[in-house]
Each structure stands twice: as structure tokens, then as C-alpha cells.
Fold this protein.
Amino acid sequence: MSLDNKILEKVRDYAARSHGAQQRKYTPDPYIVHPVRVMEICSRYTKDTAVLAAALLHDVLEDTPVSKGEMYAFLCTIMEDPEAARTIGYVIELTDVYIKKDFPQWNRRQRKEKENIRMAAISSEAQTVKYADIIDNSLEIPVHDPGFARVFLYECRTLLKNMERGDASLRTKAFEMVEEGIRRV
């Protein structure tokens, strides 16, 4: 097993522990199956360990009590500092800022509009992870929640139009998945 694979295995285990007993919204699967699939999609387009680690960790700050400091401290135990810093940076970029808890005066559309502007400016590496996240969610949500899928897929289409810096072929694939989902719901 290569050093990069050992690092990613440790990151996956950390993400799984962080998500704990959380399950995917529509299935009884442990939550970690989603970040693993996102990482696997990304691995077809990049071998950058920091990007692949960020894919595994992309929902941890948003959906668990783990802090940035705790995550960074963990990463520094398994990676050189520059790689740990890049990884945590990508995870921070991928973590929603305009959330209901912090912006209760805004409706979902207003929060998503602000998030779209923010996401358009994030790094190409973080956008690549987001494309993979959209692909994975576009496969699952329409099957289990067609009513919400329509809203979700249109939001993804808008987001993809604004996020032009990531891997171009993965972005095209994400667009195709979203458009197919829209046609099906």
C-alpha cells in the first residue's frame, strides 16, 4: 500500500468517526459512503492527496461538531504541514457559509444565491470536489425524493454555471447528470 493510500485510509477512518452514527438522509447507509464515493469520483480526475482527502472530509465541518482546529491537528499527524494546510483549506472552501442557523432572516433561495457567488470564487481543486459531490447527490436524491430533487437539481445547475474553475471534464459530467435528473423528475 502506498503512502498516499495509507494517508487516505486514515482520513477515511477519521471522517467515519467524525460522522459517527449519522446516516444518509434517504437510505440506511452510514454517512461515510457518500464522502467515499465523492473521493472515488475525484480519484478518476486527480491523484492529489490533499484533494482526495478533502473529498473524504468535505461534510465534516458542516455536519459534525468537529472544529477546523481539531481537523487540522489530525491532518498534521498524518501529512506534511503544507499538504495538511491545503486539505483543510479545501474543506473550509467546501463548507457552506450561508446556512439557516446563521442567516435566519434569509430564505433558502437567498442563501443559495450568496453561496453561489462564494463558490464561484473558490479554488479549482475545491470546485472539482464539489462537482463530484453534485454527481453523487444527483444519483441519489432524485430516486428517493423526486419532489425535492427538482429544487436541488436546479440549484446544482445554477451552481455549475457559476463554478468554472475545476476539472472541465468532471464539470461536464456533473452538468450531464444534473440535466438528466431534471428530465427525469
